[in-house]
Write a structure and sequence with these properties.
The structure is a homodimer of 233-residue chains. Chain A has seven helices and ten strands. In chain A, helix 3 packs across helix 4. At the A-B interface, helix 1, helix 4, strand 5, helix 5 and strand 6 of A face helix 1, helix 4, strand 5, helix 5 and strand 6 of B. Chains A, B: Pfam families: TP_methylase (PF00590).
């Protein structure tokens, strides 16, 4: 009988924001898998590190951060094959996922490769989106408000249109797009309603009005915009 | 010195999806607060019940589910006053919040009343949104896709426009709006791309293609729509 692949959300960075289920699965794991920047660190592993048993075998997927997709896809092909080999032996595999596995996460690449042939269970995690809202003390959405989540690389014209038509906006993966986004919000008169957060819940978290945020931003940074005046009262 | 108010996300329903931080705060709490349907159950308390100390004092906010907002706001006024009295005595208060406190959650009503005068810390939780995506095995959003979160009560015309212009759509609080939503998705040719989930991660979770979902739906139900064909490969 084949093992089960667990896609386990780790939350935004503070290890105490792991769920109890994630903690149980990781601390009991025989085989772990996680992505790492090619030749570098794995943020996922670092979040979970204090809970990883010494005895666990680890499948590291070195994912190159290139614009072309083929090299990253090859890394997931290789990782999926290594995971499949363990599952076929009847071993369960716990895959470590930053945030939530299905919210802009790379676990979907493994899921697409393995879910047809193997049992896959998703353990949802706290997203950086709500962690950022908590860090700056800004409710994301209330009542019948529409919330739009926009990736930072989106083209400026489309981004502007999305921001105009939403009550609340979360812009993820800000990174080198900070200047573009700030210019859009300034043009729309929304700069004072925009907050900036980087590395939420990690030791080096920073948060400030977007107007004060220095470029360039790290990849793990986010901008939140609310347009209503105290909509939650 | 005043105590701290903790707004603690409990996740979607499975007690094991509490974060370790939520577990620590609840199991060590001297004073708890939570909303309940007037004269009825508190879902928040039921999620956390196995971790609540016998010695904890409990502030119950009976929130009437009426269309007018004044009765609910009066309940939060009264709850906020009771919480403030504890904080003034130097007691910390742990407020139990379904899902995440700042993602369509009622904690924002307490936050608006208390955050100016008291220390408030938000502990983010797993949202029902990502829990539902995990339950049905559907990644919510990938790469540069735009994700739109729409409350079910939104007017049909606006809802249709939002669905048309998004890559991925989550419709929350479906409840008695199921028929309206299904008709819109059918008209747009998106019915086969829509999934329905109710009470995700609870013992009585149900999930199915939206086409099969029986009306009326409970309040805690959700519809997920993805438009891309395997966008995550």
């Amino acid at each position: 009988m084949s093992g089960t692949l667990y896609g386990v959300g780790l939350g935004p960075g503070d290890p105490e924001l792991l769920t109890m289920k994630a903690h149980r699965l990781i601390s009991g794991a025989g085989v772990l898998a996680y992505p790492a920047l090619a030749g570098g660190e794995s943020l996922a592993r670092s979040i979970a590190s204090e809970f990883i048993p010494n005895t666990a075998r680890e499948i590291v997927m070195d994912v190159p951060m290139t614009v072309e997709r083929a090299p990253a896809q090859a890394a997931y092909d290789k990782g999926a094959a290594a995971i499949a080999a363990e599952l076929q032996k009847g071993e369960d595999v716990v895959c470590l996922c930053e945030g939530d596995p299905f919210f802009y996460g790379s676990f979907m690449y493994l899921f697409a490769r393995l879910a047809t042939d193997y049992q896959v269970e998703i353990v949802p995690g706290v997203t950086s989106m709500t962690a950022c809202a908590g860090a700056i003390g800004m409710p994301l959405a209330a009542r019948n408000e529409v919330l739009t989540v926009i990736p930072g690389p989106l083209a400026a014209a489309e981004m502007e249109e999305r921001i105009v038509s939403s009550d609340s906006v979360v812009i993820m993966k800000v990174g080198r797009h900070l200047g573009k986004i700030r210019a859009i919000l300034e043009r729309l008169g929304l700069l004072e309603r925009a907050s900036y957060v980087e590395r939420a819940t990690l030791g080096n978290e920073r948060r400030m009005p977007l107007a004060d945020a220095p470029a360039p931003a790290p990849y793990f940074s986010m901008i939140l915009v609310t347009k209503g005046a105290d909509p939650w009262l």
